[in-house]
Write a structure and sequence with these properties.
It contains four helices and three strands. The chain has 107 residues and is an alpha/beta fold. It has one domain: Undecaprenyl pyrophosphate synthetase, CATH 3.40.1180.10.
């Protein structure tokens, strides 16, 4: 629908940094299971439709296999030109401000 409507950028918030820290193991296992299953499943569709997959947030907070799935999806769709879909994981506005200030100080 978004692609047909000409929407160029879509983002979906999946897990905040706080969610990763505070959610129960059961909840995280369920969410990570969805990522493990669905991202590889939709990857051919994204590639065929020339949709670029991106992530926003601190992926280091995620299990190694999830990081790999997300990085592989980003690399496989890097040439997408019709739309960019961003999955937001391990992100918090406060954390982003802190990291931005630290970057400015280090420059």
């Amino acid at each position: 629908m978004c692609l047909a409507a000409g929407i160029k950028y879509v983002s979906m918030w999946a897990l905040s940094k706080e969610n990763i820290i505070e959610r129960s193991e059961f909840e995280l296992t369920s969410i990570f299971g969805l990522i493990r299953h669905k991202i590889p499943q939709v990857l051919p569709t994204l590639t065929q439709a020339s949709i670029r997959f991106e992530t926003i947030g601190d992926l280091s907070l995620l299990p190694d296999d999830i990081q790999k799935i997300l990085i592989d999806a980003k690399e496989a769709t890097v040439g997408g030109t019709q739309m960019t879909f961003a999955l937001v994981l391990g992100y918090s506005g406060q954390d982003e401000i802190v990291r931005g200030v630290k970057r400015c100080i280090s420059e």
